[in-house]
Amino acid sequence: MKRAIFVFTAAFLASATNAETVAELHEKELNAIDANNDGFLSKDEFDAFSDYAFQAMDEDKNGTLGQAEAKPFLDIKQFQNVDRNKDSFISRSEYDAQMNEDFGAADQNGNGQLD
Length: 115
Ligand SMILES: [Ca+2]
Ligand SMILES: [Ca+2]
Ligand SMILES: [Ca+2]
Fold this sequence. Notes:
Keywords: Signal. It holds the Pfam family EF-hand_5. Residues 1-19 form the signal peptide. Residues 45-80 form the EF-hand domain. This protein is mainly alpha-helical. The protein has a single domain, classed as Recoverin, domain 1 (Orthogonal Bundle), CATH 1.10.238. Helix content is 60%, strand content 9%. Helix 1 packs across helix 2 (22-33), helix 1 packs across helix 6 and helix 3 (43-57) packs antiparallel against helix 6 (92-106). The chain is globular, with a radius of gyration of 14 Å. The chain binds calcium ion (CA) (3 copies). One calcium ion (CA) is lined by residues 34, 36, 38, 40-42, 45.
C-alpha cells in the first residue's frame, strides 16, 4: 500500500514539474510536500498536498475525478481500486479515504509523520 502514495504523488509531480531525472523528482517531491522543510512529512502537510493534487487533477472542477482526468496519473487498475463504489468517478471522499489509508499504511511506527 505504501506504493500507492508514491504512485499518486510521483505521477502527479512528474507531470507538474517535468522532472528530468528520478533524483530531481525525488527532491522536488519532498520539497513540494514537506512544507516546513524539517525532513518529515506530517499528516497536515500530506493533507495539504493531497488537497492541492485533487484540485489540480479535477480539471472541470466538479468535485470528482473522471477517468479522463485521472488517466495521466493512474492506470485503470489503480483507478478501480480508488473508485470504491464503481461508478467510474473518484469522488472526493473516495480520494480522501485512499489517501488516509495510504498515509496510515506508510506511517509504520504510527507517530503521525512519514520519515
Ligand atoms: Ca515537515
Ligand atoms: Ca472532474
Ligand atoms: Ca466512485
